[in-house]
Amino acid sequence: MQNIDCGAAKVLLFALSSLKVYTDIAQRLSTEYEGYIVSSSIESGPALVAFQTAALGVQWSLALQVELLETSWPVELLQHASCKELVLDSNQDVILFRGLRIQMGIDRGNVQMTNQGKNSVTYAGLAVHRSNALSHAAQGGQILASTEVWKVATQDSVIVKHQANNLGSMKLDGAIKPVEVVELYPLDVSARSKIFGLTCAGCSQPIRPGQEFLKAMGYKWHVDHFCCAQCGNALQGSFIAQGGKPYCEEDFYEMTATKCKGCGKTIKAGFIEALGGLWHPHCFVCQKCRRMPSENDNIYELNSMPYCEACFMAQGQ
User: Fold this and answer.
1) What is the percent of the chain with per-residue pLDDT over 70, rounded to a whole number?
2) 3-state SS, one letter per residue, for the chain
3) What is the pTM of this model?
């Protein structure tokens, strides 16, 4: 009697059925956007797709991400950690991920085509290598494109319902020179960028590869965007956090320290406690003659302010 691993067979079955769903969607959209599937495999589905224009390649990629999100996937697949449904924290109605998460990379350029027979053609060249490297650098559900592709695509056509973030220069596997890269998302799931990459808590824009940033208060910030919430100056050294906001020490103490009842400024050293408040010693004077009281002088109060005896009596005349 032959032993059969039923659990493994079940996993393989739903994995293959899920891959077929992806392949069917990719093929249908390739036809719609005038693309040609250059290479595909049983293990990964369509791996390389060629298009007539950069704009068609971008539009195909965005449309594929949308359809993958809206497709009915096997229940077993959605129970997998990397395929389960994930919603936006601030809006539970916005689904960011659901089902297969495909890494995608887009580049353009000349290729060398080799006829393999039976209507099979292989592509080779720098554009093929860079598109593969971009897809490997991307995360599941993310589209990375060279800025050259994005520039040409937006010149050729209007790309609707999308979010594009410039990631700056990126060192790709096997590439001699860094490549300028843009990340693309369908507009409804643009919040994926906050999950994938580093996002500045100050401006909510991406922190580009190689760009300096700092960590503070549990977040990451562009160096010049970590600023005092009161004066707006960049915080390069120590700071004080209150109410989820950073403050320079000077402004924090100015905001929270005890104020003089006379001048309203911060009391940093000695003080006098009188008439229901605290005073700088030089501010606790007669409001009329401006003389500081001596130890044995009587102090009179008028409108919560101090007066010497002579000036207070004169007020009543």
Assistant:
1) 91
2) CCCCCHHHHHHHHHHHHHHHHHHHHHHHHHHHCCEEEEEEECCCEEEEEEECCHHHHHHHHHHHHHHHHHCCCCHHHHCCCCCCCEEECCEEEEEEECCCCCCEEECCCCCEEEEEECCEEEEECHHHHHHHHHHHHCCCCCEEEEHHHHHHHHHHCCCCCEEEEEEEEECCCCCCCCEEEEEEEEHHHCCHHHHHCCEECCCCCECCCCCCEEEECCEEEEHHHCECCCCCCECCCCCEEECCEEECHHHHHHHHCCECCCCCCECCCCCEEECCEEECCCCCCCCCCCCCCCCCCCCEEECCEEECHHHHHHHCC
3) 0.62
